[in-house]
């Protein structure tokens, strides 16, 4: 029974909302709940992802002063100046949040649930007092504000674990808190169908030309310099531990917690490395071999003895420095003390 | 203000990454027998002979792979002068002590990879040999050595992908020859047949995607061979007609075959690739989907110190070797380049594959070293005041000297007329040809060596360079000896630590295994994390539930689930597995970082992968595994926490964990379903016994309880004496 009643109630409510919203110009002074819902819906439709951008003022209007409320808010606390801190994953979580929002909106379009939950975001720089209002001092942070909640500090916080598994777990959180259905989350495919089709057609069209060129033998394939450059690059890329950085998603460097203008480029401890550190050492690894090859293969053909001498001195100096630096860095990073084993009678 | 706590989670706290130098604590210690030492020695000498001593002109890895050296007539004499053959010997000098290889061949850590790397290099050597000679005899040997490789290590897929890649490269760059066909086709046919004889491989040799590349290239090489054949027998015009015909038919056939292959591949869920191979192609694959692979410390991506540890100064020399291989590029040298490039990439994905990189690095740095020594010694030789006059007068001991000059000039010749030398390189099927070409070069060089300038570098700079290179080599030797002595020879079952008051020995593992073997029944089963499986089997002689064979994931997930569950469900799981004892490794007292709490992450992940009621987020506080007061209740109630920290507070009164550097969250608790039976001297291994179910069921069947209890104890006592005759 109750199930069958609910929709009709909602329908009435919606009708009421629409009526009210059409009457808004006449009731500009005291905003009712339905006004706010209408405006939120309006704001939502204007936003690309369906996430409403709030600030101190509008938050006050929709949340603190707006009572009673028929809707709940899911607020994402954002800070643009922390976006470049990859370890916070703010951007990723934000895009997942957007995904949940758009899924919810498209799934609940033209149903009463669409005015039950709104996805909002707050930016730290422009709404600091709202951050204080919610007592938010760590990011990433997502709050769910129930209609019944009086004090924003009591609102439910989405656990770290809830956005650990991205949009799906966020949706679970939302569903458990609001009893609304978010709907199946559909990620946009990496390559759209049109792009894929275009790529296939382009590939098919270019195949005969490629084959022709290949048979004629004037492609890049036959230029050994390209191969040489590629293989040295792959070598450099691998010994610099770049795969480690990709797999572990390591940042290029760490900013000092206490003094953001200082950066840590080298991390002590062999289990981990930072991006810039890897590339620096990879460069040192590679440069010695390149210089050696340059000296033995090219410099040897130079006629001018002075040039030879100068370049060799330079190469020797750089190589010596590079090896010394790597040995030093390795000892520093791993803490190993490499020593020889000499006959005991020598001591 | 805003605190970025994500950062914290990365920097500090529990380090769940016990990767050190590429040797997993788990696996290395499991193979802790030193009986195979001799075999390792034999293997080393086999590698040595393969790369240097077998016969004059062929079996040098370095030389065979580097035909440029065999082209230059002066080298042979030069080498006899120095008693130091170029490349080959430099390679041996690098290869016989490279730490990466030492790590698998020293006593205590002797592993099947030690055999496999020899087989790998030997297969490559024979492939190159066949490619250079076009001899079917070597092609057959090649297939046999491939079989040897398949028998010894799963890494054989590296061969069966690398060689097709090289063949394809040769075809694409227009280097197809009948020698290439002879080197490849028998290998695929014979090799696949032989490989499918190995039980572990079986039909995988034709069914899995790892092998498809070789079949595809097999088809391509036949098409190409056909084209070349037709081209040979037809006139130019007829050939064009034939090409259109063959191309249409060929494309149709190819499409059909590729279609079948694609359908086959697509029908399997992992696209026919095994998890390990997939994680090589897409390095982030394993960390996303296969925790059992991602959990092994050998499968972690290495950081740059790993390269310095494992190939040391060779890392500096390899780029020079790569460049030397390109000047000029031949079939063989392009193979070496391909080998180093693929292996260095793979080693970047998995630290364990450093093992495959090591020989390649040795070969290339050997080439680089011999090139460098060649240039520098030559520069010194002809510019030393006493010698230069002699050599220019062309008399006396200068046979080697003039040879070198010829060598230089020959080289210069080669460079100046690249297309010609390319041609000659391509068409070297018979020895006659080569001889002719040698003579030709020799003649030309003798003619022109007066006009041409000597290719030398300034004297003093060359002397310094040689000294520095020798210094580099000396450092390499010191490092390798150190690595072999300190890092790779230490048995990981007995741990030592140096402190200001001397050497400390932690012999807790053996203590625990000895206790197990002396105090438990022969057929009692012991549950522990899989890392200790082989050790327990071998040293305690007890059956384990999971061991280092990670072929089957479900068992491991079951144990992981039990460890992550509260006591009662854990007891039920263990009881259903007929487990009597549970063994946990705990490093909190002495600060041993690769203990079970640090591996707990993987128990939860692997367990959760099979049993969805284990949810990783339940164990995480702010994205971290914590065991301090901030820990989640699921964590504090998990069996692993309880077994690790039971009575821990008794040690120092505070319960301070020296690995996690924090006080534990829950200090006083009792165990309901387990009882502590043994804890080793440093608390590194703790053994618990499952309480018998009768104690729990109160009042249900008092009679049977009172009856059975004394009976069971006596029976177990007498049983122990009876069943365990060895102790």
UniProtKB/TrEMBL annotation, chain A:
Task: Cite the source lineage.
Answer: Eukaryota, Viridiplantae, Streptophyta, Embryophyta, Tracheophyta
Q: Give the stretches traversing the membrane.
A: 196-215, 227-247, 279-300, 307-323
Kindly give the Pfam families that the UniProt entry links to this protein: OST3_OST6 (PF04756)
The record describes its quaternary structure and partners as: Component of the oligosaccharyltransferase (OST) complex.
Gene3D superfamilies this protein is in? Answer: Glutaredoxin
Role noted for this protein = Subunit of the oligosaccharyl transferase (OST) complex that catalyzes the initial transfer of a defined glycan (Glc(3)Man(9)GlcNAc(2) in eukaryotes) from the lipid carrier dolichol-pyrophosphate to an asparagine residue within an Asn-X-Ser/Thr consensus motif in nascent polypeptide chains, the first step in protein N-glycosylation. N-glycosylation occurs cotranslationally and the complex associates with the Sec61 complex at the channel-forming translocon complex that mediates protein translocation across the endoplasmic reticulum (ER). All subunits are required for a maximal enzyme activity.
> Has UniProt tagged this entry with the keyword Nucleotide-binding?
no
One Gene Ontology BP term is: protein N-linked glycosylation via asparagine
Listed A to Z, the keywords are: Endoplasmic reticulum, Membrane, Signal, Transmembrane, Transmembrane helix
Name the domain of life this protein comes from: Eukaryota
Entry keyword Aminoacyl-tRNA synthetase? no
Region forming the signal peptide: 1-22
What does the UniProt entry say about where the protein is found?
Answer: Endoplasmic reticulum membrane
Q: What is this protein called?
A: Dolichyl-diphosphooligosaccharide--protein glycosyltransferase subunit 3B
Q: Name one GO cellular component term.
A: oligosaccharyltransferase complex
- This chain's source organism reads Tetracentron sinense (Spur-leaf)
Family, per entry: Belongs to the OST3/OST6 family.
Q: How does it sit in the membrane?
A: Multi-pass membrane protein
Automatic annotation (TrEMBL), chain B:
Query: What does UniProt give as GO cellular component?
Result: endoplasmic reticulum membrane
Cofactor(s) for this protein? Mg(2+); Mn(2+)
Region: Disordered, residue numbers: 408-443, 694-727
Q: Which reaction does it catalyse?
A: a di-trans,poly-cis-dolichyl diphosphooligosaccharide + L-asparaginyl-[protein] = N(4)-(oligosaccharide-(1->4)-N-acetyl-beta-D-glucosaminyl-(1->4)-N-acetyl-beta-D-glucosaminyl)-L-asparaginyl-[protein] + a di-trans,poly-cis-dolichyl diphosphate + H(+)
Q: Which Pfam families match?
A: STT3
Show the ranges annotated as biased composition (Basic residues): 694-706, 718-727
Q: Has the keyword Magnesium been applied to this entry?
A: yes
Pathway(s) served:
Protein modification; protein glycosylation
Membrane topology (UniProt): Multi-pass membrane protein
Q: Could you list this entry's UniProt keywords, alphabetically sorted.
A: Endoplasmic reticulum, Glycoprotein, Glycosyltransferase, Magnesium, Manganese, Membrane, Metal-binding, Transferase, Transmembrane, Transmembrane helix
Gene Ontology MF annotations? dolichyl-diphosphooligosaccharide-protein glycotransferase activity; metal ion binding
Work out whether the entry's keyword set contains Protein biosynthesis. Answer: no
Q: Where is the composition biased (Basic and acidic residues)?
A: 410-443
EC numbers listed for it are 2.4.99.18
InterPro entries in the cross-refs:
Oligo_trans_STT3, STT3_N
TM region(s), chain numbering: 110-127, 147-169, 181-206, 212-230, 242-266, 307-327, 334-351, 454-478
Q: Where is the Oligosaccharyl transferase STT3 N-terminal domain?
A: 98-364
Q: Where is the signal peptide?
A: none
| Residue spans of biased composition, Low complexity class | 707-717
The subcellular location is: Endoplasmic reticulum membrane
Tell me the subunit arrangement. Component of the oligosaccharyltransferase (OST) complex.
Q: Which family does it belong to?
A: Belongs to the STT3 family.
| Name the UniProt record assigns to this protein | dolichyl-diphosphooligosaccharide--protein glycotransferase
Query: What is the native source organism of this protein?
Result: Tetracentron sinense
């Amino acid at each position: 029974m109750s199930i069958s009643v609910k929709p009709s109630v909602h329908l009435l409510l919606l009708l009421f909302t629409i009526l009210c919203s059409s009457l808004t110009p006449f009731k500009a002074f005291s905003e009712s709940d339905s006004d706010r819902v209408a405006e939120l819906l309006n704001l939502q439709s204007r936003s690309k992802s369906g996430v409403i951008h709030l600030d101190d003022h509008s938050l006050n209007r929709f949340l603190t002063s707006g009572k009673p409320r028929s809707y709940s808010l899911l607020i994402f606390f954002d800070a643009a100046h922390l976006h470049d801190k990859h370890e916070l994953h703010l951007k990723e979580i934000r895009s997942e949040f957007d995904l949940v929002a758009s899924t919810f909106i498209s799934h609940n379009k033209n149903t009463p649930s669409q005015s039950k939950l709104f996805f909002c975001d707050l930016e730290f720089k422009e709404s600091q007092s709202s951050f204080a209002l919610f007592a938010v001092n760590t990011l990433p942070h997502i709050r769910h504000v129930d209609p019944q909640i009086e004090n924003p500090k009591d609102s439910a916080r989405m656990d770290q674990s809830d956005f650990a598994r991205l949009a799906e777990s966020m949706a679970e959180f939302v569903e458990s808190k609001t009893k609304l259905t978010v709907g199946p989350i559909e990620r946009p495919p990496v390559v759209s169908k049109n792009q894929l089709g275009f790529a296939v057609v382009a590939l098919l069209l270019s195949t005969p030309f490629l084959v022709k060129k290949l048979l004629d033998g004037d492609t890049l394939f036959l230029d050994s310099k390209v191969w040489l450059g590629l293989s040295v690059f792959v070598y450099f890329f691998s010994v610099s531990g770049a795969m480690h950085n990709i797999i572990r998603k390591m940042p290029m460097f760490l900013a000092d917690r206490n003094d953001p203008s200082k950066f840590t480029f080298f991390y002590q401890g062999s289990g981990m490395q930072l991006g810039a550190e890897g590339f620096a050492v990879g460069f040192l690894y590679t440069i010695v071999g390149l210089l050696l090859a340059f000296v033995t293969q090219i410099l040897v053909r130079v006629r001018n003895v002075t040039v030879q001498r100068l370049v060799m001195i330079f190469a020797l100096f750089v190589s010596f420095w590079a090896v010394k630096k790597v040995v030093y860095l390795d000892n520093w990073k791993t803490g190993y003390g490499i020593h020889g084993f000499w006959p005991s009678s020598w001591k | 203000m805003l605190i970025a706590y994500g950062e914290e989670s990365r920097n500090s706290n529990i380090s769940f990454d016990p990767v050190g130098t590429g040797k997993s604590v788990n696996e290395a210690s499991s193979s802790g027998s030193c009986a195979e030492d001799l075999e390792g020695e034999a293997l080393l000498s086999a590698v040595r002979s393969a790369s240097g001593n077998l016969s004059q002109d062929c079996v040098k890895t370095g030389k065979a792979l580097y035909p440029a050296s065999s082209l230059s007539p002066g080298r042979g004499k030069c080498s006899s002068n120095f008693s130091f053959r170029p490349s080959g010997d430099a390679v041996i000098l690098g290869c016989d002590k490279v730490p990466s290889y030492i790590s698998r061949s020293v006593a205590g850590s002797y592993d099947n990879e030690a055999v496999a790397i020899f087989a790998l290099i030997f297969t490559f050597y024979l492939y190159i040999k066949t490619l250079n000679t076009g001899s079917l005899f070597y092609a057959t040997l090649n297939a046999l050595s491939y079989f040897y490789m398949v028998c010894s290590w799963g890494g054989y897929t590296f061969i069966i992908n690398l060689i097709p890649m090289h063949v394809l490269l040769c075809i694409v760059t227009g280097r197809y020859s009948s020698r290439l066909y002879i080197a490849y086709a028998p290998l695929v046919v014979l090799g696949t047949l032989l490989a499918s004889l190995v039980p572990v491989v079986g039909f995988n040799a034709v069914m899995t995607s790892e092998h498809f590349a070789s079949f595809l290239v097999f088809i391509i090489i036949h098409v190409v061979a056909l084209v070349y054949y037709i081209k040979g027998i037809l006139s130019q015009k007829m050939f064009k007609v034939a090409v259109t015909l063959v191309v249409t038919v060929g494309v149709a056939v190819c499409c059909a075959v590729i279609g079948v292959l694609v359908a086959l591949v697509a029908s399997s869920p992992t696209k026919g690739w095994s998890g390990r191979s997939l994680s090589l192609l897409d390095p982030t694959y394993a960390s996303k989907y296969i925790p059992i692979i991602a959990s092994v410390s050998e499968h972690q991506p290495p950081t740059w110190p790993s390269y310095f540890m494992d190939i040391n100064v060779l890392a500096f020399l390899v780029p020079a070797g790569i460049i030397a291989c390109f000047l000029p590029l031949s079939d063989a040298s392009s193979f070496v380049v391909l080998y180093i490039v693929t292996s260095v990439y793979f080693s970047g994905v998995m630290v364990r594959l450093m093992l495959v990189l090591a020989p390649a690095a040795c070969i290339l740095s050997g080439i680089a070293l011999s090139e460098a020594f060649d240039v520098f010694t030559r520069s010194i030789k002809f510019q030393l005041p006493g010698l230069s006059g002699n050599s220019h007068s062309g008399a006396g001991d200068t046979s080697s000297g003039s040879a070198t000059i010829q060598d230089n000039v020959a080289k210069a010749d080669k460079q100046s007329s690249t297309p010609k030398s390319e041609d000659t390189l391509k068409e070297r099927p018979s020895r006659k040809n080569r001889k002719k070409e040698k003579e030709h070069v020799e003649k030309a060089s003798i003619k022109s060596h007066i006009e041409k300038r000597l290719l030398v570098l300034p004297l003093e700079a060359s002397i310094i360079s040689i000294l520095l290179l020798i210094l580099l080599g000396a450092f390499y030797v010191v490092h390798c000896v150190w690595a072999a002595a300190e890092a790779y020879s230490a048995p990981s079952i007995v741990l030592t630590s140096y402190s200001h008051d001397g050497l400390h020995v932690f012999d807790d593992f053996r203590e625990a295994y000895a206790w197990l073997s002396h105090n438990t029944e022969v057929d009692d089963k012991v549950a522990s994390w899989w890392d200790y499986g082989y050790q327990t089997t071998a040293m305690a002689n007890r059956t384990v539930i999971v061991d280092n064979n990670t072929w089957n994931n479900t068992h491991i997930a079951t144990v992981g689930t039990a460890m992550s569950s509260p006591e009662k469900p854990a007891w039920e799981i263990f009881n259903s597995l007929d487990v009597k004892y549970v063994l946990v490794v705990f490093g909190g007292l002495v600060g041993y970082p690769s203990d079970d709490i640090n591996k707990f992450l993987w128990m939860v992940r692997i367990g959760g992968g099979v049993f969805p009621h284990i949810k990783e987020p339940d164990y995480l506080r702010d994205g971290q595994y914590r065991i301090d007061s901030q820990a989640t209740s699921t964590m504090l109630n998990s069996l692993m926490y309880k077994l690790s920290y039971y009575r821990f507070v008794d040690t120092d009164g505070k319960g301070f964990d020296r690995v996690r550097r924090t006080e534990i969250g829950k200090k006083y608790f009792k165990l309901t379903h387990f009882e502590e039976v043994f804890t080793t001297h440093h608390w590194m291994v703790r053994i618990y016994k499952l309480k018998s179910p009768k104690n729990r069921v109160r009042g249900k069947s008092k009679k049977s309880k009172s009856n059975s209890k004394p009976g069971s104890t006596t029976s177990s006592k007498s049983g122990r004496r009876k069943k365990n005759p060895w102790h």
